[in-house]
Amino acid sequence: MRSVALCSARGAPGVTTTALLVASHLDSVMVEADLSGGVVAVRYGLGREPGLVTLAAANPHEPGGWLDHAQNAGGIPVLVGPDAAETAESLWRTAGERIVGVLGRSDGTVVVDVGRMWRRPRVLDVAEVVLVLARPNAEELVAASHAVATLKATNLGHRGVRVGVVLVGDGTYRPTEIGDSLGAPVLAHLPDDPTTAAHLRDGGTTSRSLARSRLSRAVAGLADIIDQPAAQVPDVVTV
Ligand SMILES: Nc1ncnc2c1ncn2[C@@H]1O[C@H](COP(=O)(O)OP(=O)(O)OP(=O)(O)O)[C@@H](O)[C@H]1O
Ligand SMILES: [Mg+2]
Questions:
Q1: pLDDT band at 239 (very low <50, low <70, confident <90, very high)
Q2: Nearest alpha-carbon partner for 78 in 126, 112, 120
Q3: Section 75-81 average pLDDT
């Protein structure tokens, strides 16, 4: 299994939107591990189950068994998380180890929507790439720098986890300045694309026409970087 985790540190820079597009480009499954509560089931008119709750209860041991718990969100298989923060937090506290175990035994690529990260979440135990999303304004960047520092201070290092920053929209700071001050490279600068983002927020599909949008094309570039081994991406920091 390969796992790419996306998180934010402040605001709502578009983690869920970007995670769906990354999952689409990597032909993978999205896991909704936002401790503030999931939104994908509501956005796509799906049921609360199956999802992470049924996955944790079933604890499948065969490599493909986890896929029985995914639902179709506009063309992307998604393991939806509980929509209430309390339930999500309780699920990860009581069954986090089991969920991580199932994901670790799975045979595909997973893209994890971690949501806003304020502590090192358990799901990062299986992450190979962690992307911190931020809009390039002072308050989101300061928060992102703390998130990068937290990630580096945890035990991700011994597994060679790659940490990168993804900027969303315009701001007053240049990507190179930002990468230097955040201590992690800026792997992508995604455009403000309200039309595409609203289409996905309102339960739209990741269709062929969407693939031509500015946002989808930019995320395709990010997916290419994720696909490359760290050694071939010179400015990727390995912590
Ligand atoms: N690249 C973008 N350009 C313009 N609008 C965007 C972009 N990405 C997301 N949005 C919009 O921003 C809002 C928040 O997006 P999203 O839910 O993906 O953010 P998030 O970081 O997951 O937020 P939260 O922490 O609340 O889960 C939505 O209205 C979405 O349509
Ligand atoms: Mg979100």
A1: very low
A2: 112
A3: 97
The pocket of ion ligand 2, defined by CB under 5 A, consists of 15-16
Measured in Å, residue 36 CA sits from the centre of ligand 2 at 8
Give the ligand 1 atom nearest the CA of 168: 1
Q: What spacing in Å lies between the alpha carbon of 13 and ligand 1's midpoint?
A: 5
**Predicted TM-score of the model (pTM):** 0.95
Reported as half-sphere exposure (CB side, CA atoms, 13 A), residue 227 has a value of 12
Closest ligand to C-alpha of residue 168 is: 1
Domain-wise residue ranges, the chain:
2-232
SS3 content of the chain, % helix, strand, coil (to 5): 45, 20, 35
Residue 231 has pLDDT above 70, yes or no: no
Q: For the domain 2-232, what is the CATH code?
A: 3.40.50.300
Question: Rounded to the nearest whole angstrom, what is the distance from the C-alpha of residue 159 to the centroid of ligand 1?
Answer: 30
